[in-house]
Each structure stands twice: as structure tokens, then as C-alpha cells.
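Late entry, written up from scratch paper. The run itself happened at the end of the previous shift, but nothing got recorded in the book at the time, so transcribing now.
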Amino acid sequence: MKISVQAADFDLGLEVKNLSREKTVGAVASFVGVVREVPMTLEHYPGMTETAIRKIVDEASGRWQVMDCTVIHRYGALQPGDQIVLVAVASAHRGDAFAACEFIMDYLKTQAPFWKKEHRAEGARWVEARASDDQAAERWQAPARKKAP
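Output as recorded:
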């Protein structure tokens, strides 16, 4: 499992290729978040952020058959069009890969300690959490699916 909080950009193709190397991998589902319209600065607490992300990945691995996973989240100054986050999950089957990928992304939005500041023409402002992000994470509160033997 690869978890990285970094300022540098990432190569989506390379990251997916790295997850696809095992012959038992049948699916890799990925999500790439991109900065929209407004430049932003992301801040985090080193160590604390990686620990929070690791817990999210561990939870997903307990719910679905996750063979491997990569989570990369950038911090620092980002411009519109920049990649900001990658979640990629390898599994034997697409259903597990899709579900775990979505679960991890939903929880990253609400559980990982990141702070976003948008830089608009009228000035900079910290971005508040969205109710829709909380609702997305809440739907996973239902009992976890059992992993197949």
C-alpha cells in the first residue's frame, strides 16, 4: 500500500501500472481529483495526515478484497487543472476495486486533515466542509460487506 502526501505532481499511468504488476490483479479502479477554476493552497499536518489516510485504507481493505492501493494527495500551491489527489485500488474483481476506491475518496474528503484556501480575485478564503461530502461518507456507515473467502 502506497500512501504519499507530497507537493510534487504524480504520473497516473505509472501509478496504475505499478498496481497492475501482480498476475492475480483483475481490476484497477482509480480516481483523480483536479483543481477547478480557482488557484488554491492545501495545508496538512505531516505524520497525522498519513496516519489518517492509512486508517481509511485499512478500513477499505477490511471491507473489500483490496490487493493493493495507492493514495497520493498533494499539498502546497495548486493551479486550476493541476492534479490534486489520486486513489487507485487493485483487486481481483472490479466491484471490489470500484467500491473501495469510492469509499476511500469519500472518507478522504471528510476524515483526512487537509485545509484548503482558495485564492479568488476578491481575496483568499478557507474552504468550509461541504454537507454533500459528509453525506457521501455517511452512506458507508451501513454494515460492511463481508469479504469473500
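The longest strand covers residues 83-91.
(Scratch paper discarded after transcription.)
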